Amino acid sequence: MNGADILIEGRWVTAGRAGYPVIIVGQSEVIQFVDGSEIARSFSNRCRTKYAAGFRTLIFRSHYLLEKFWTKTYASQLRSVLFANKPDCVVVNYLGIAYALQKSEIGRLIRSGLVVETHNFDPQWFANIASRGGFFARIVGRATLQWLDNHLVDLLRNVSCIHVTQSDRAAYARMCTHESTVLQVGVDVPAVAPAAPKSSDVVLTFLGSLSVQMNIDALLLFESKYLPDLRLYRGGAVVVKVVGSNPSSDVMKLCSRNGWNLYADVSDQELSDHLLDSDFLIMPFAYSAGAKLKIAKALAHGLPLLATECVNHDELKLPTSCLFDDSPARWLSHVNAFRRSVRASDDFETLRRIAMRSSWSEMVPEVLDAVSSACQAKGAE
């Protein structure tokens, strides 16, 4: 699953299991919760490949995510669910999908206001793709940016948005005044204890979807800018773990030539074990619009961050074991100062307590109150 899918599952599956009447229309499955019990049925549908969605974006001068996820089959299933259940509130994934829903006849089935999970600041996300991706990704990114120029302001005025950071909310607000709230990314906080160090080596772990260009660029930057200094670590060897889904051939080559350990498509338990066996989660991003889930996952395991400045945002108030700095020399000095000390200190539990404030289960009442208020506000207009 991508980060957006994880967020939707974390918010709404958790709410459904807590006893709230939730219906999730996924890519190829409808899940309905009744008194905490889950009823699921599948249907035949696939999101479009990145190339098919990209070509449709260019041909129809559209939004890439709209073309990737909004299919006739999906729209038909959504229409059936809305007609049969007449929900009090509808929350959709992505601004592009909200646009497609409003422009179709399905929009008339929504009795209240429409709420959108934005996940990121779309103009920044696609500007990054337009300037840093491969040739095809760049032209698709530019086409999506043009779509956003043409449609985003009107769309924001007609929906209520859930943003995951104050900085995202402020960025959208600079485009126009709109109904919005901020609900930070949640996380499942496991019952774990710090792992005892197995050697004097420092273990650095990178986490992410390994076919996404932003993550590939981060690994390339780590190789060229940060790794040479970190190899001067005086305590032992530098062990790098790359953990994630769907590694591209570029990532596999990158790991092979540097001797990094690649762990692809691991289970939740395996991921937890890797994080507990690490000294830092590394986040060497030259640009970032999707790091919130990585941060939450690290904090839930008491794992400090070694990150570039662009990863930081206003809501993060973390102890000094976490570093946000673009200097390779400061990364090295930080590793020398803090390596393994966090595991034997109060910082381990401090980081976990920060994560517990935003556990999915603890956030359910806040999420439902915010969404209900947003629906009522838009429905009353």
Structure in words:
The chain has about 375 residues and is of the alpha/beta class. It folds into 2 domains: about 5-185 and about 360-380, Glycogen Phosphorylase B (Rossmann fold, 3-Layer(aba) Sandwich); about 200-355, 3-Layer(aba) Sandwich (Rossmann fold), CATH 3.40.50. The chain is about 50% helix and about 15% strand. The protein is built from 15 helices and 13 strands. The chain has helices at about 5-15, 50-60, 65-70, 70-85, 95-105, 120-130, 135-155, 165-175, 215-230, 250-260, 270-275, 290-300, 330-340, 345-355, 360-380, and strands spanning about 25, 30-35, 35-40, 90-95, 115, 160-165, 180, 200-205, 240-245, 260-265, 280-285, 305, 325. The protein has a 6-stranded parallel sheet with strand order 10-9-8-11-12-13, with helices on both faces. The protein has a 4-stranded parallel sheet with strand order 4-5-6-7, sandwiched between helices. Helix 1 crosses helix 15, helix 6 runs antiparallel to helix 7 and helix 9 (about 215-230) packs parallel to helix 10 (about 250-260). The radius of gyration is 21 Å and the shape is globular. The mean pLDDT is about 90.
Q: Which keywords apply here?
A:
381 residues; alpha/beta; Rossmann fold; six-stranded parallel sheet; four-stranded parallel sheet; 15 helices
Topology, pairings included?
Layout: H1 3-17, E1 23-25, E2 29-34, E3 37-42, H2 50-60, H3 64-69, H4 72-85, E4 90-93, H5 95-103, E5 114-117, H6 122-132, H7 135-157, E6 160-163, H8 166-175, E7 179-182, E8 202-207, H9 213-230, E9 238-244, H10 249-258, E10 261-264, H11 268-276, E11 280-283, H12 292-300, E12 305-307, E13 323-324, H13 328-338, H14 347-356, H15 360-379
Parallel strand pairs: 4-5, 5-6, 6-7, 8-9, 8-11, 9-10, 11-12, 12-13
Antiparallel strand pairs: 1-2, 2-3
